[in-house]
Amino acid sequence: MYLKRTGVNYTKGDIYSMDNLSEIAQELIKFERDNDMTDNQVAFGSHLSVERIHDIKAGNSEPNDDEAELIERFMKSSNK
């Protein structure tokens, strides 16, 4: 199974769940899916690096307050 836009390949038996992700990571994943956007587009629009977007979405780290505000502002301005 290939998860669109994450570049991660999962083999049969792997479990992928958003339950262990932060609220903002879940919102970001849903936002990208609903608006057909890539991590690159979100990174450009939020003025964060694509690597930082990947880390947040993967649950590897939490955004700081400034990063969370940039992401939320971008999602609000782009969500129509």
Describe the protein's architecture and organization:
- It comes from Limosilactobacillus frumenti DSM 13145.
- The protein has one domain (2-78): 434 Repressor (Amino-terminal Domain), CATH 1.10.260.40.
- The chain is 55% helix and 5% strand.
- It has helices at 23-35, 39-46, 50-58, 65-78; strands at 2-3, 8-9.
- A two-stranded antiparallel sheet has the order 1-2.
- Strand 1 (2-3) and strand 2 form a beta hairpin.
- Helix 1 packs parallel to helix 4 and helix 2 crosses helix 3.
- The longest helix is centred in the C-terminal third of the chain and has 14 residues, at 65-78.
- Mean pLDDT is 83; it is low at 1-6 and 9-15.
Spell out the key features of this protein.
disordered N terminus; mainly alpha; 80 residues; 5% strand; 434 Repressor (Amino-terminal Domain); XRE family transcriptional regulator; LBP_cg2779-like
How many domains in all?
A: 1
Helix content: 55-70%
- Runs in which pLDDT lies below 50 for 5 or more consecutive residues are 1-6, 9-15
Number of helices: 4
Output the CATH homologous superfamily.
lambda repressor-like DNA-binding domains
The main pleated sheet reads as: 2 strands, antiparallel
Q: Please identify, by name, the CATH architecture.
A: Orthogonal Bundle
User: Strand order within the widest sheet?
Assistant: 1-2
- Computed Rg: 12 Å
The total count of strands amounts to 2
| Pattern of helices and strands | EEHHHH
Which fold does the CATH topology refer to? 434 Repressor (Amino-terminal Domain)
| CATH class category name | Mainly Alpha
Strand content: 5-15%
Shape: globular
N-to-C terminal Cα separation, in Å?
30 Å
Sheet/helix structural class? mainly alpha
- Average predicted local confidence, pLDDT: 83
Protein name: XRE family transcriptional regulator
